[in-house]
Amino acid sequence: MVSLALKDFATATRRMVELSGVKKTRLMLRVRPSSARKTFILKSTDGRTTLTTRVADQSELKVVEEIVNDFVTQCTSALTPPPAPLAANPQAPPQKKATENVAPSGGGSGNKQSGGGKKRKGGRH
């Protein structure tokens, strides 16, 4: 386990995510409210190397936010597929060809059921 200053931890964690990928990298925040100094611990690991740092000063929270935001952004970008490239000449989607001898149905029989279902016993009174 390697203990680093916060800025070095941020740089090393970003590098770890780049090299190992988000599937292998974990980022953990451990808050210790019972501590008199209200410190919390940040850890990042890729399974081989574990980096840690302590955050005790409120002025360092901006750097912590940046680390977490970068990590979450990397995770979500790895999960979502990249946008499809736009074609220079967009083609219309293929359409079904109409048969020449079939007349269009004006009323549209839609979802009507055809006969042939089971007959009811007893009927209605």
TrEMBL record:
Bilayer-spanning residue ranges: none
Any coiled-coil regions, as ranges: none
Gene Ontology biological process terms, A to Z: SRP-dependent cotranslational protein targeting to membrane
An example Gene Ontology molecular-function term: 7S RNA binding
Gene3D superfamilies: Signal recognition particle alu RNA binding heterodimer, srp9/1 (3.30.720.10)
Composition bias type Gly residues, residue spans: 105-116
Region (Disordered): 78-125
Composition skew (Low complexity), residue ranges: 86-96
GO CC terms: signal recognition particle
Superkingdom field: Eukaryota
Alphabetical list of InterPro entries matching this protein: Signal_recog_particle_SRP9/14
Full protein name: SRP9 domain-containing protein
Organism in which the protein naturally occurs: Trypanosoma vivax (strain Y486)
